[in-house]
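Long-time lurker, first post.

We've been arguing in lab meeting about whether zinc ion would sit comfortably in this protein at all. Half the group thinks yes, half thinks no, and nobody has a model to point at. So I'm putting the question to the forum: if I give you the sequence and the SMILES, can you give me back a predicted structure of the complex? Inputs are below. Any interpretation is welcome too.
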Amino acid sequence: MSGFRDKMSRWMYGRYGNDQLNRLLMALAIIFLIISIFVKYPVFYWIAVIFLVFAYFRMLSRNTYKRSAENTKYLRITSRLHSIFAKGKKRSRDREHRYFKCPGCGQTVRVPRGRGKIQITCPKCRREFIRKT
Ligand SMILES: [Zn+2]
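Top reply:
Settle the argument with this. Predicted structure of the protein with zinc ion, as tokens:
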């Protein structure tokens, strides 16, 4: 006798399954579903349905290559957001330095605080600029 799990795994064979992007889509679907309970506009409900349909479409897709490429893209964006967030946090905690962007190449330059107007030389492109610290 083959159980439900067996049947399920045979049906899922060759399909993409779940990943981080799908978990986000499911979470968004649930959030919009909850909003739709409290808000009388049906648009929230439909947005939830769209997220859910998209998540199921990805889960059952046989084009695993394309789906994992989407997930990789999603992970790259989130890791970039995480690093931007971490950088901002570190800087706001750093009371002894000021951060300036080089007008030449955009490189971030860290200089000690409270030195008045000083000339800064960019370590990357050697451009000099004056900033108040
Ligand atoms: Zn520079």
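For your lab meeting: The mean pLDDT is 93. The longest helix spans residues 64-93. Whichever side wins, do check it experimentally.
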